[in-house]
């Protein structure tokens, strides 16, 4: 096998605990991931989610980078539609100056929250002048590359090593956009695991880049036995909300679906309960499934998200996957 493994964390808040507790759990997982030899540790962006603490990945990245030594730390991802591309470039140049050679900038186009939080984040935007996502991505590239144009402000300070850049998406259009703008593409299989969509997105990126292969993000949970993993994953559900105009969104419950529709100002919607796509079983089973993706699509790196179970179960899952990967020569432990 010749692929590497990385991790994605949404900093879930355990029942009865606080955001501070969630961040301490994230720190513990990041440190253990570094010890085991995972390549990257990314944190997500979600707004006004009572069960998730990950509302400001930039701040959390700085904290984690200061508390670790070698593992790459990054965003999975910054929801670019809410922000000035210039400010994002400044922030990640600062982070890359604080932790040279260790910072990843992943960006996405989803809102990362319910309609009310999106309106709050974009309250001062002039809708008529708001650039498209593709325009924002190009602006961000320009600021990060410092093309020397003094008619535009420079995003300072210039770090010794620029942040590595990734576009997160789950469609052929996103794959093509990443290729056109020179960003690495991460297919969000943890959000959309449809096999046909995955294949079309991979094919589009490979054609547009002349053979490049996306990184694949997946949900994964390892336990000591197949039965134990099945039992813990078996009760997980997501609710897909279908809104007028073709918009769809996935939430955690029927109550959240109703609240999303209320904030969106619609009453004509429908829902479907679905079983989330999670690779689960013993670590050997999970590595067998990853190897299948590697052989079928040429995937060279996987970013794994562990479902929001207990902190102990998440840690155990990472340790089981990491230990098996190290034995297979996929992870290189810190000296």
Automatic annotation (TrEMBL):
GO MF assignments: oxidoreductase activity, acting on paired donors, with incorporation or reduction of molecular oxygen
Domain of life, source organism: Bacteria
SUPFAM superfamilies membership: Bacterial luciferase-like (SSF51679)
Keywords linked to the UniProt accession: Plasmid
Domain Luciferase-like intervals: 3-296
Any single GO CC term annotated in Swiss-Prot or TrEMBL for this entry: cytosol
Pfam families cross-referenced by the UniProt entry: Bac_luciferase
Gene3D superfamilies cross-referenced by the UniProt entry: Luciferase-like domain (3.20.20.30)
Family: To bacterial alkanal monooxygenase alpha and beta chains.
Protein name in the entry: Luciferase-like domain-containing protein
Organism name: Rhizobium grahamii CCGE 502
């Amino acid at each position: 096998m010749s692929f590497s493994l990385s991790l994605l964390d949404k900093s879930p808040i355990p029942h009865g605990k606080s955001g501070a507790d969630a961040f301490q759990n994230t720190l513990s997982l990041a440190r253990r991931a570094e010890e085991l030899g995972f390549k990257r540790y990314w944190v997500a962006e979600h707004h006004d989610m009572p069960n998730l603490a990950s509302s400001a990945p930039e701040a959390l990245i700085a904290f984690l980078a200061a508390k670790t030594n070698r593992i790459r730390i990054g965003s999975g991802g910054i929801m670019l539609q809410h922000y000035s591309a210039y400010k994002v470039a400044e922030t990640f140049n600062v982070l890359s100056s604080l932790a040279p050679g260790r910072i990843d900038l992943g960006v996405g186009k989803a809102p990362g929250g319910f309609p009310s939080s999106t309106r709050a984040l974009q309250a001062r935007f002039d809708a008529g002048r708001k650039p498209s996502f593709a325009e924002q991505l190009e602006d961000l590239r320009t600021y990060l590359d410092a093309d020397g144009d003094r008619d535009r402000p420079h995003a300072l300070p210039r770090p010794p090593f620029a942040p590595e850049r990734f576009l997160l998406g789950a469609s052929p259009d996103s794959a093509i956009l990443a290729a056109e703008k020179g960003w690495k593409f991460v297919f969000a299989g943890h959000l959309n695991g449809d096999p046909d969509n995955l294949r079309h997105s991979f094919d589009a990126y490979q054609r547009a880049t002349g053979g490049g292969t996306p990184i694949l993000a997946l949900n994964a949970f390892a336990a000591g036995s197949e039965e134990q993993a099945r039992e813990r994953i078996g009760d997980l559900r997501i609710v897909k909300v279908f809104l007028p105009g073709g918009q769809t969104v996935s939430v955690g419950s029927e109550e959240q679906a109703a609240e999303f529709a209320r904030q969106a100002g619609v009453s004509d919607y429908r829902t479907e309960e679905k079983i989330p796509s999670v690779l689960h079983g013993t670590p050997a089973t999970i590595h067998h499934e990853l190897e299948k993706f590697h052989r079928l699509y040429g995937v060279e790196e996987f970013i794994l998200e562990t479902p929001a179970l207990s902190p102990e179960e998440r840690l155990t899952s990472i340790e089981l996957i990491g230990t098996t990967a190290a034995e297979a020569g996929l992870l290189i432990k810190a000296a």
